[in-house]
Design goal:
Helix content: 40-55%
GO molecular function, one term: tRNA(Ile)-lysidine synthase activity
Oligomer: single chain
Bound molecules: adenosine-5'-triphosphate
CATH topology of the largest domain: Rossmann fold
Subcellular location: Cytoplasm
Catalytic activity: cytidine(34) in tRNA(Ile2) + L-lysine + ATP = lysidine(34) in tRNA(Ile2) + AMP + diphosphate + H(+)
Structural class: alpha+beta
EC number: 6.3.4.19
Pfam families: ATP_bind_3
């Protein structure tokens, strides 16, 4: 067995799935992944099904998908082309395309009863990312290598060739006479990744090859995992949820090293807002400073305050003042009103809601969090405010609880 075959099989350990999907763009990395997986299938590895995403962004993309389909037909593997209507996307297009790709792949896998999907990131991708992050001044989290597997949308995505170099994978394809598609953006030096690739080639004579940098990034990933595990243990001890707020015991928080304290805050903000991307480093440093000083500060629509021996993270009223959702639907990404009868609307209590609910202090929430907390309204009239102590037949269910927060500390 070649080293590449061994590495690929080692990724799955003793219990590989019976069947799995492979995401193949037509580039060398994912084509080599496909061939390695296909050889394994003959020797008892998972049965394969392949998908290519046509993002509709380059004219050649359709032809490349058709080329992958032909190749799969030759290998006796089922192939599907998934199309994305990228016209609707705004903002950062490559990022939107990447997110859409994972969403489409997860949906495709679920439709075909596949719980695992392999993608072709390599050690070169890790090394290029490492250089790009160095250039941005990233710390441990940014420099750590990408995960070799993660769950999303009910599917586990695998990177079985993450420790292998691109050159070796290309040799594997050449030996089999397989041609791959070269994405023209790979030579376009307006892309940071292309410049990182060029820089990497220049660093090789120093002994700083892709494999060396990828090995360092893998060590940093192990360190990141260890810190995440410690942060989670600390949070289990000192954090709790009250209403929709997250609280940490202040004495314990103050005694934490900055690195752990920062992780507790970053995960708290992500938990509250549902955003995947952490705040910028400078903003986060200021937030940590405010936490240390017990000073009020707002970040990404969340408010940090020091109240009665606790640090309290709450939703900012301004961030949710305009949000409306029919009862039964999800409000602010994390609340659902149930139990009452008839149609109603969920919206923040705000000043009008608190006026309509004079006993709101009975709910135990401070004034700011009470303003931002959800109430149930009908035609502009408040009919229930369960978090402010007035249930009136309605319940408000928090869809992300403490466990979700704790899990984010490991992510
Ligand atoms: N159009 C596509 N169709 C199917 N799979 C794809 C497609 N594009 C990428 N992939 C899968 O994702 C893997 C990584 O590709 P690529 O490096 O372009 O991904 P990315 O996540 O967009 O990149 P980045 O590393 O810049 O975040 C490929 O090896 C392949 O398995």
């Amino acid at each position: 067995m070649s080293g590449a075959e061994e590495a690929l099989r080692a990724h799955f350990g003793a219990g590989p799935p019976d069947a799995m999907g492979v995401a193949v763009s037509g580039g060398s990395d994912s084509l080599a992944l496909l061939h390695l997986m296909r050889d394994w299938q003959d020797e008892g590895g998972p049965a394969l099904r392949v998908a290519t995403v046509d993002h509709g962004l380059r004219t050649e993309a359709g032809a490349e998908a058709a080329q992958v389909a032909r190749l799969c037909a030759g290998l006796g593997v089922a192939h599907d082309t998934l199309r994305w209507d990228g016209q609707a996307a705004r903002g950062n297009l490559p990022d939107a395309a990447r997110r859409a790709r994972y969403r489409l792949l997860a949906g495709w896998a679920r439709r075909h009863g596949l719980r695992d999907v392999a993608i072709g990131h390599t050690a070169d991708d890790v090394a290029e990312t490492f250089l790009m992050r160095l250039a941005r001044g990233s710390g441990l989290d940014g420099l750590a290598a990408m995960r070799d597997r993660w769950r999303d949308g009910g599917v586990t995505f695998h990177r079985p060739v993450l420790t292998l170099g691109r050159d070796g994978l290309r040799d594997h394809l050449r030996a089999r006479g397989v041609a791959w598609a070269d994405d023209p953006t790979n030579d376009d030096t307006t892309y940071t990744r292309t410049r990182a690739r060029v820089a990497l080639a220049a660093l090789a004579p120093l002994g700083l090859g892709a494999d060396t940098l990828a090995a360092t990034a893998a060590r940093l990933r192990a360190a990141r995992t260890a810190l995440g595990t410690c942060a989670r243990r600390v949070a289990e001890e000192i954090a709790h949820v009250d209403g929709g707020d997250l609280l940490w015991r202040r004495d314990d928080f103050d005694a934490l090293p900055d690195e752990i304290a920062r992780r507790l805050l970053v995960a708290g903000v992500a938990w509250m807002t549902g955003r995947d991307y952490p705040p910028r480093g400078t903003a986060m440093a200021a937030f940590l400073g405010a936490a240390r000083a017990g000073r009020r500060m707002t970040l990404q629509g969340c408010v940090l305050s020091a109240v009665r021996g606790h640090l309290r993270l709450s939703r900012e009223y301004r961030a949710v003042a305009g949000l409306r959702a029919p009862s039964g639907a999800v409000w602010d990404g994390r609340w659902r009103a149930t139990g009452g009868t008839g149609r109603a609307t969920v919206a923040a209590l705000g000043p009008a809601g608190l006026r309509a609910c004079p006993g709101w202090r009975a709910g135990g929430l401070p004034h700011g969090p009470a303003l931002a907390s959800p109430g149930v309204w009908r035609g502009g009239t408040l009919i229930a405010a369960p978090l402010a102590g007035w249930e009136n037949g309605w319940r408000l269910e928090l869809l992300r609880g403490l466990d979700d927060y704790l899990d984010r500390l490991l992510a």
